[in-house]
Specification:
It contains eight helices and eleven strands. The strands form two sheets. Strands 1, 2, 3, 4, 6, 8, 9, 10 and 11 form a nine-stranded mixed sheet that branches. Strands 5-7 form a two-stranded antiparallel ribbon. The two termini are 23 Å apart.
Length: 297
């Protein structure tokens, strides 16, 4: 495998700022719509990086660019077992591809204490926009007064011990190396409470908690202590004292772009990467391809 090139600091700083903004926007979306479905948070992350995707010349002479692809709602038609978002990095110099690597994010949102979250509805998806004509006969006023509490005891309810998804991710990491990481969507701070009807929009600046990334190796022991079907809590993850628990922007810029996480790939590993990305029915819902063109000389 090729030696990973040194990425100039201004390129690292720029990508850190981009993913920090994505962290902020997704966290803001969660705190304002606390029962939002998980896939809408994935979409929010992707949407947040799109404005920064055109080529940009940095002071070091490095050119950075992102290409973004999002299947969106199509993921609800099948089983998306491996990951939700792929981040690929391609490094060039003098028109030549030097190195490439991939990191995969399996996202899970923190559920409020009442577990009131809009889950994906296969039947409603099949109806498409017609489902809006098939209204619930009960008045929406019945759902007006609700309270969403987020504490250390809240769970990532869609992540459960001994699930098929956990086993599939374990097998991929065994085959490919540590490539899949957990992305946890959280409110900006804990504890926090949101009440319906809302009184005002909550703006988020720099969330102390927000989007966090964990290695499979840090999450696996916590899942192993749970009964089958049980979900880990926020407090349980933090008390375990993991070596990861990175901010989203730290994982993307300081670790992935510096080749401290994720997996490099070349011709010898194209088959497994293709298996993940090239089929529209594959197990990845969205991809961000980061291109870094290093200055010549």
């Amino acid at each position: 495998m090729a030696v990973w090139p040194e990425i100039p600091d201004d390129a690292i700083d720029w990508f850190r700022a981009v993913f920090a903004e994505a962290n902020r926007k997704v966290t803001e979306r969660l705190i304002n719509v606390p029962n939002i479905r998980e896939t809408a948070l994935d979409d929010g992350l992707i949407e947040a990086v799109i404005p920064y995707s055109p080529p940009r010349l940095l002071p070091s002479g490095t050119v950075v660019e992102m290409n973004v692809h999002n299947i969106g709602g199509l993921r609800r038609l099948g089983r998306w077992e491996t990951a939700d978002i792929a981040v690929l990095v391609f490094v060039y110099q003098a028109g030549t591809l030097l190195s490439q690597k991939i990191g995969l994010l399996q996202s899970k949102r923190l559920y409020p204490a009442n577990n009131d979250v809009d889950d994906d509805d296969p039947v409603g998806f099949a109806y498409g926009m017609n489902k809006f004509l098939r209204r619930d006969p009960k008045s929406p006023l019945g759902k007006l007064h609700r309270q969403f509490d987020f504490t250390d005891d809240c769970t990532y309810a869609a992540l459960t011990a001994e699930s098929d998804q956990v086993e599939v991710i374990n097998r991929l990491n065994e085959e490919f190396g540590d490539a899949v990481y957990y992305l946890f969507y959280n409110p900006p701070v804990i504890p926090t409470t949101v009440r319906y009807p809302v009184a005002s929009y909550q703006a988020v600046t720099q969330p102390p908690l927000g989007c966090r990334v964990y290695t499979m190796a840090d999450v696996a022991p916590i899942l192993a202590k749970l009964d089958k079907g049980a979900a880990p809590t926020l407090g349980g993850l933090e008390k375990a004292g993991p070596s990861s628990n990175w901010r989203l922007e730290t994982w993307a810029a300081d670790l992935l772009l510096r080749c401290k996480v994720g997996q490099q790939f070349g011709e010898d590993r194209q088959e497994i990467v293709g298996r993940l990305l090239e089929r529209r029915s594959g197990p990845i819902a969205a991809a961000i391809a980061v291109s870094v063109a290093l200055p010549e000389g």
